[in-house]
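Continuing the series of single-chain predictions for the mutant panel. This is the parent chain; the variants come on the following pages.
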Amino acid sequence: MSSSVSTPSRDLETIAEVEKSLTFSSFTADTAWRIGNSLRSRLLNFPDPVVINISLANSNQSLFHSVTRSGTQADNDSWVARKRATVLRWGYSTWYMHNKLGGDEAAFTAKYMLGGSAGQYAIHGGGFPIRVKGVEGIVGVIVVSGLKQEQDHQVIVETLQDYFRNQN
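Parent structure:
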């Protein structure tokens, strides 16, 4: 495996279509384990240390949490929490939210009247919603933190695409 990913689209319709296409027929702790391990295996090829977290939406229950190598910081876990909060609140990937607002944090804060709570959210790629067919809303969140934001996002997308391809 290489330490590269393709460049993700910045078009909101395309991003939303990709997210919708990656809907699970079911999602369990075993599913999270397989996806988490696939992400970690792929990310071991990147030189930067990365945190991977997969958690349920209805609680803060973590189903998978790992780092790829020494060198992650407590700040990575803060980014995980902020990206997760964004996905849970708006129901889209953080990459979608980043592109919706042109990456403008001040516009993000103003548009959603976040005031002092803006720091609880991140509009940087790497937070991705877990959807299950026939279930309203999202059931969980996958977060990658440690690479460039477009890589954090795209490694999740490509790993999920591989997962779904191998299911068939």
